[in-house]
Amino acid sequence: MTSQPRLAPSPNAVYTRLDDDSAAVLDLASKRYYTLNATGIAIWEALAEGHTSEEIATAVHEQYQITLDEARDQVASFLEELRGEGLLEPGRDP
Q: Are 57 and 79 in contact (CB under 8 A)?
């Protein structure tokens, strides 16, 4: 598997946890907000902690008992959607 660059939440993205199963992200640049479910929360918080997409996919695979390939595809799709909305930017390597 090829190495992918780390991603991190944009400084323009304000994250607020609403409860255990929902959160909101406000994009200060566009003034749009997005809601996240429990899986989205886990992915967002893992990105904020500096985890790679592969580490996140492994955690999703274990948590939801889906194949690792399915987890990779789903995480990659979600990250691409977040990037497309301007909510992620390149992160720093540890």
A: no
> In the block, which residue shows the tokens 């479910």?
37
Q: pLDDT above 70 covers what percent of the chain?
A: 93
- Domain 9-86, CATH class in plain words: alpha beta
Q: Please say if the pLDDT value at position 3 is more than 90.
A: no
The structure tokens listed for 7 are 């991603």
Angle at 84 between CA 47 and CA 17, to 5 degrees: 45
What confidence tens digit (pLDDT) does each residue in 43-75 have?
Answer: 999 999 999 999 999 999 999 999 999 999 999
The distance of Cα 68 from the centroid of its chain, to the nearest Å, equals 17
89 contacts: CB under 8 Å, gap ≥ 6: 7, 8, 9, 10, 11
Spatial CA neighbour of 58 closest among 41, 49, 70, 48: 70
